């Protein structure tokens, strides 16, 4: 059964799904260019805040994925929750879910979503539309991947036994099944290295990993990575100095296939934005598999 990938970005959910994708929808031109170059078809460049019922119904998919913007719920943001206009596309899609009732839907967001009024609204709306919900938090570190990205996941099925489950355990300590070095570029771009003055100014507050440490685990890379030296993702110390991770290294840690590539016209800043906004393919696959949704792909 094909998947409808909403807020598709780079298409991580479709990669995790592994089966056919009916259509993707995203309003970002950069995301859509990279998506089209890698997935062989272009997403619909629709603003989901104003999407019409006939538009989504016309895509004829019974399985929907959505990874709506997380800024209304992030610890670093103002946490305006339902008052943030960036929640509107999610609320509009929820209205259409209540009307069109796809058999399965799944979504991802930041852990701050758990305590939000928006989550309460999502749960009430889905339960009123006859869905059984399973919610959890999962971090790729729990899968042996040396990068933190603790995220909220929801899988909802039409019908079911009505027994809603939640699993919000904290992420366990990580023992990498592959060292961080195995995700790194063979010949890092010299432009990735930070000036000594920056390292001196931020060295105490930035998270700098030892490239030779087999147990090194990176912090979560966000779309602010590279803009702010603190709290947006780890840096790496190697024989050449201290450097940023490349966008391609972040994609590898997120579980994208080696063949996935940014389109040449997409600037470096946009590559960090797209990678920092994306999903852990391995975590999404685990969530879908454990919810029994992948079996039907
Ligand atoms: C958290 S990212 C999702 C990343 C994606 N799942 C991936 O695999 O890379 C949110 C995405 O929603 C898109 N978006 C935000 N508001 C939107 C709207 N109103 N309509 C359509 N897309 C929107 C953004 O362009 C961004 O790509």
Features:
16% strand, alpha/beta, Rossmann fold, 7-stranded mixed beta sheet, 297 residues, binds S-adenosylmethionine, DNA Methylase, Chain A, domain 2, 27% helix, 2 domains, 10 strands, 9 helices, 3-stranded mixed beta sheet
Kindly describe this structure.
With 297 residues, this protein is α/β, with parallel strands linked by helices. The chain has two domains: 3-170 and 279-296, Rossmann fold (3-Layer(aba) Sandwich); 180-275, DNA Methylase, subunit A, domain 2 (DNA Methylase, Chain A, domain 2). It is built from nine helices and ten strands. It has helices spanning 12-17, 29-39, 53-57, 88-100, 117-128, 196-202, 247-254, 268-276, 281-290, and strands at residues 3-6, 21-25, 63-66, 104-109, 131-138, 151-158, 165-167, 208-210, 235-238, 241-244. It has a seven-stranded mixed beta sheet with strand order 2-1-3-4-6-5-7, sandwiched between helices. A three-stranded mixed beta sheet has the order 8-9-10, with no helix packed on it. Helix 1 links the parallel strand 1 (3-6) and strand 2 (21-25). Helix 4 packs parallel to helix 5 and helix 7 (247-254) runs parallel beside helix 8 (268-276). The longest helix is centred in the N-terminal third of the chain and has 13 residues, at 88-100. Bound molecules: S-adenosylmethionine. The site of S-adenosylmethionine has 21 residues, from helix 1. Residues 7-13, 26-28, 31, 47-49, 67, 69-70, 89, 277-279 line the site of S-adenosylmethionine (SAM).
